[in-house]
Amino acid sequence: MKKRIFLAPLDWGLGHATRCIPLINSLLDCKMEVILGLSGSAGQLLQTEFSSLLSIPLPSYRVSYGGKGLPAGAIIRQIPSILGVIREEHRLLNEIIDQYQIDAVISDNRYGLWHQEIPCAIITHQLSVRLPWLHDLFGFMLRHFHYSFIRKFDACWIPDLPGQGNLSGALSHGIPLPSNTRYLGPLSRFASGHPIQTTNEQEETLLAILSGPEPGRSLLEEILRPVLLASGKKAVMVLGTPEKHRQPEVTGQLTIYPFLSSDELQKVITESTVIICRSGYSTIMDLAATGKKAILIPTPGQTEQEYLARYHYKAGNYYFEPEKVFNLERALSNYHNFNGLKISFHPDWIKEAIENLVG
Question: What span, in angstroms and rounded, lies between the C-alpha atoms of 174 and 335?
Fold first, then answer.
């Protein structure tokens, strides 16, 4: 009889869902049955990618980053609501396990999806939670609180490489880790063994990929639409809104897609010269899978993205500019000086982790 795995990603933007794609494929390759726990646009993305799999609705975290203010402050104010969702998803998990006879659970950053009687793994790259002044004053206490949730799981999988050449820097390196952690290797929907080649076109072609929770996603769209159109260059913008109608909008040299499947997006990446995107961790992993150069625009006040943008800028990997001073002409003149990334992915590490969890 096939082992039945319940897998559920966090629904803050699309990144947690996209990095689950290679994990779901590995589970299916291991002849396991996968049931998905989904909510929000992240759930719609995985339903598009895996339409044949059974999916069960979970409560949405519905986190808002509060306009143009400080996102960290907005998140702090929503902590009681977040803890309420964690309690509710934990209650629902007990019902799901009983009803569907689940053998193991894999959660991407959903901290309520643990169970005392069956093996459960949590995926996270941010062992060191970075909030502005809270991180400096109470970093140890914050990490202790975070680890108290992680230790409820049988395994904590870090989607990164150990040691030098890693992608997450201080987010999951250089700190004491819980004893149940292991590095899984990076996870990307584009790490399929079919490398993306750089286009041979002489013309500079731009691709803007929007992601992340609202209102940050829409604010970046408002900035990039007019500057891409005014650039006179061939450009594509992918809005990251799978819930909207999928007909492309074409204005001059700019083509706008509400959403593209992984295969469709991979084709568009192949045809592009440079990518403009947020600096979320799943996006960094996708960039490393493609080998493309990129211009990073971190979400203002989202300290994890700001850290990752600076980390890869200092490493010579990607150029970045803050959103409030973003200038396309300046960015296009500078990104050439950065090397991009091309790293190895380790599907054998993923399968080994799955086997160790499920038995």
Answer: 29
